[in-house]
Amino acid sequence: MKFEIFTILPELFTPYLGASILQKAAAKGLVEFNLHNIRNYTHDKHHTTDDTPYGGGGGMVMKPEPIFEAVESVLGSPPNCPVVLMTPQGKPFSQSMAFEFASEQQVGIICGRYEGYDERIRQYLVTHEVSIGDFVLTGGELPALMIVDAVTRLLPGVLGDPTGAMDDSHAMGLLEYPHYTKPAEFRGWNVPEELLGGNHQLIEEWRIIQSLRRTHSKRPDLFQKFDPRSLGKKTRKIYEELLKILPLHG
Ligand code: ADE
Hints:
This protein is an alpha/beta fold. The chain is built from nine helices and ten strands. 35% of the residues lie in helices and 16% in strands. It starts with a strand and ends in a 5-residue tail after the last helix. Bound molecules: adenine.
């Protein structure tokens, strides 16, 4: 799959995309990260990408022409893939959105700076507006990297363990179970017995119970939304038993 990233600060991406799992995924040809500098699509002497807002007020607004020209020259006019605008006004990013983007051949991501974007970019160019949380950053580059990271690790062959992404927190709508490694005893704190005996059925059940318990206590909103139909027969029974002993608060 290909990411086409539109930004006035491409240098912010290179260290993160050039390290660890993302770098290896690109080197193996599993993903392409293509950076497009919006400034290269300006035609004035100063390579202007922003201007003052009509109607006055503080801050600068990203101009429409360079962004339209950049996106359309890379993705076609109109683009036939998702064009994602990073903005705190967008839909909150989620694991299910990461799966959705991971099923695409190509995804465009536009990163803004300054006070905002000319509204015509939202209206006539982008297909998705995405936020990474209810706070405001100085630009869309970090949010874009978060999306690129979350999506890339879902692509086939990227993680060493092919089940890795399925066990993640949020993949099933639950938080992940606790993990332990050696030593079995550290400062008198012991690894739970269930994990030590090598009984895979017992381990699986213990993990599901822990996932349910911790989702219930840390993220009651997720627990309430959890659809137990995704559980097997046996674990479904455990869920129902847990529901009885863990009444939902409020
Ligand atoms: N740009 C600035 N803040 C942002 C946020 N919270 N999400 C996405 N893009 C942003």
